Amino acid sequence: MTQINIASSAPITPEISILIPAFNEAQGILTFLERLFAMMNSVCLNFEIWVIDDGSSDATWGQLSAAQAHYPQLHGVRFTRNFGKEAAILAGLRHAQGKAVIVMDADGQHPVEILPDMINLWRNGKAQIVAGQKASRVIESFKSRVNSFVFNKLMRALTGLDLSNASDFKLLDRHVVEVMLAFPEKVRFFRGMTVWTGFNTHFISFDVSPRLAGNSHWSNAQLMQLAVTAITSFSAKPLGLVLRLGFLGMIAAFLLLIQAIYSWFAGIAISGWTSLTVVVLFFGSANLMAIGILGAYLAQLFNEIKARPEFLVREQF
Ligand code: UDP
Ligand code: MG
C-alpha cells in the first residue's frame, strides 16, 4: 500500500524568491506588492517574497508587518539603521531559498510585467542570469544621465566591464547566488559582480517606469561613493595611471632641466618663469590626486580588513 506522509514537515523549496531592498518606501510599497503578488500568482505556484527594510524612518516596516496577514509568502527583514542598498541585497540573497532569485526595486521602477519572460527564459535553461537592461532613460534627469554616462565610460575603461544600461533588476540561478555568497569581500557592488562572474546571461530590456511615490534616495555624495567603491573593488588600474603620470612628469622635468641649463649658458636664465609656475601647479595637483587615489584604495582595504558585519538586523518575520 502506498502511504502518503502528509505530516512530513520538510519545507518545500520555493521555485522563485523575489528580493526587494526598500528604504523609506511607505507611500508606494503596498501598491507595488499588490501588483507583484497579482503577477507572481499568475506565473508561479511556489514563490516567496523578501523585503529588506534598509532602516527606513517612515512607516515602511509597519506596512510590511501588516501586509503579512494578506500575503503568507511575504517575509521581511528590518535593519537597525540604513546600511545601503548593497547590504540589503546581500541580506536578501542570504535569506532567499528559491531555485532562482530575482532582485527588484520597491518603487515600481522595475516593471512586474517582464517577470514572466524573465522566469521563462530561466525555466527553459536559456540563461543562468537574466539581466534587465534599461531601454530608455528619458524619465531620468539630464544630470543623472550625464552621471551614468561618465560612470559607465570610466568603468569600461578601467575595469573592462560594460555596465551601460545595466540595472539591479536581475534573475539569478541558485548556482549564481551560491557563488556570489561565497565571495569573501565586504564591500560589494552587485551590478558589477554579476557581470564579473561571466555566467551565461540573457538580456531583457525594459522601460523604466516612473516611481510610484516619493523621490530617489541617492544623494550626490552617495553616488560618488558608489562610483569609487565600484572602481576600486574591480580595478587597480588607477594606481598604474598614477605611476605612469609620475614617469611622464620625470621626463617633462628632465626636458625643462636641459632648457634651464641652456638658458643659463645663453644668459637668458630669467625666461621660463611661466612654464615653471605651470609645472609646479600641475604637479602639485597631480600629487594631490595621486594621494587621493591611493587613499581610496586604502579606505577599501581598511573596510575589508575591519571585516565588520555588512548589516545588523533588528527584527524579521
Ligand atoms: N534603497 C535601499 N537603501 C538605500 C537607498 C535605496 O534599499 O539606502 C532601495 C530603494 O528603496 C529602492 C531601490 O533601492 O527600492 C532603488 O533606490 P532608488 O529608487 O532611490 O534609486 P534609483 O531608482 O534612482 O536608482
Ligand atoms: Mg528608483
Tell me briefly what this model is.
This protein has 317 residues and is α/β, with parallel strands linked by helices. It is built from ten helices and eight strands.
List the defining traits of the structure above:
8 strands; elongated; 16% strand; alpha/beta; binds magnesium ion; binds uridine-5'-diphosphate; 317 residues
What's the structural blueprint in terms of helices and strands?
Blueprint: E1 16-22, H1 29-43, E2 47-53, H2 60-67, E3 74-79, H3 85-95, E4 100-103, H4 115-123, E5 129-136, H5 142-159, E6 166-173, H6 174-182, H7 190-197, E7 201-207, H8 220-234, H9 237-266, H10 273-306, E8 313-316
Parallel strand pairs: 1-2, 1-4, 2-3, 5-7
Antiparallel strand pairs: 3-8, 4-6, 5-6
Helix pairs in contact: 5-8, 9-10
